[in-house]
From TrEMBL:
Keyword Secreted: no
Biological pathway: Cofactor biosynthesis; NAD(+) biosynthesis; quinolinate from L-kynurenine: step 2/3; Amino-acid degradation; L-kynurenine degradation; L-alanine and anthranilate from L-kynurenine: step 1/1
Keyword field: Hydrolase, Pyridine nucleotide biosynthesis, Pyridoxal phosphate
Species, as recorded: Lederbergia citrea
Binding sites annotated in the UniProt record for pyridoxal 5'-phosphate: T102, T103, F130, P131, S132, D133, D211, H214, Y236, W265, T293
Residue spans crossing the bilayer: none
Protein's recorded name: Kynureninase
Amino acid sequence: MGKHEFTKSYAQSLDEKDELAHFRNEFYIQSGSIYFDGNSLGLLSKRSEWAVLSLLESWKALGIDGWTKGENPWFYFAEKLGKMSESLVGAEPGEVIVTGSTTANLHQLVATFFKPEGKKAKILADELNFPSDIYALKSQLQLHGLDPAEHLVQVGSKDGCIIQEEDIIEAITDEIALIVLPSVLYRSGQILDMKRLTEEAHKRGIFIGFDLCHSIGSVPHSLSKWGVDFAFWCNYKHLNGGPGGVGSLYVNKKHFGTAPGLAGWFGSHKEKQFDMEHIFTQAQDASAYQMGTPHILSMAPLLGSLSIFNEAGIKNIRAKSLKLTEYLMELIDNELKEYNFIIANPRDDQSRGGHILLEHEEAARICKALKANKVIPDFRSSNGIRLAPVALYNTFEEVWEMVQVLKKIMEEEQYKQFENKREVVA
Ligand SMILES: *Cc1c(COP(=O)(O)O)cnc(C)c1O
């Protein structure tokens, strides 16, 4: 069966062989706890802390001149961070800009690329996507005077976890004007085949964009090679950009010059911006889809974080992530047999993202018991426990330890001390 042994010393031997192990020292790890929630809020690194402090320093020392002077002139900071993100998504120069939030960027991109005409006036999404994306799509339809009940097509899932790509492809009819899908489903961690879906969309002359919130910093992408039209993501999950950190968007260079649906002066050509004309001259790359003044201090952590990612390499990060989750699944299979857990994420490397989804009818209070034992998972309604052992700062020993803790919780029925109900922020 499995390829792993189930002893602690074996876990330690995996850590000894791990070439990314030294990056753990770059992060603030809360002592005595096991943090498996880096897919919801990544941890602070020392490089990010330094980046925030140095941005504050530039404000202190330079005042308004910080826009054009200092080590990281604020006027070009969003572009600089966009450039540093290119390797993570497989972008060509100028295709990524750090701006807005996931939801705001989705609004911008739909406002830009959804052009309903006659019968071709529907948006295709899926039934399992994150609610904010769906709210945004519905409100965009309403802005066009279209009824979401008719014009938002959501591909269903048979088991509530997995979406069949065949079902998506079947739903790409000639009534669809735009497709927006997640790269990795936030709950089950399923990876959709972005290359294949992009080909299918383009065969029918339809634009397609992806929400990369759960793949960015965890799974490599080749957006440009695949010809994806646009993408957007937050930077505070696997990318450790900090709570409320600024998001990012990608626009394929074939669309450079397309007028932003929601224009603002920071989308201007940089040389023209301060001419203060009422005629908008847009930047000729993804910068054009910015709106107002960049949130410099909220972008600062990314500077440190992206330098870590570029040093570690996304392929190496993915390789370790797959090993961690594979090991975790084998331990669960072996150690927790009698406790009715269901591993609900896809098992194969090809379609498994950076986290594991364990389903259990007592999930909400099992999560509370884990937290009481200083293991940090996250709960996803109605019965899901997401566990993300993160390549840059988690260890194989922590994976082993976490499963022992969970086993003890189940053996001793510790979860019964808690209410089986989620917290306000779950
Ligand atoms: C985390 C997440 C969001 C969050 O959107 P914000 O605008 O950053 O609050 C949206 N969509 C998906 C798929 C997510 O995972």
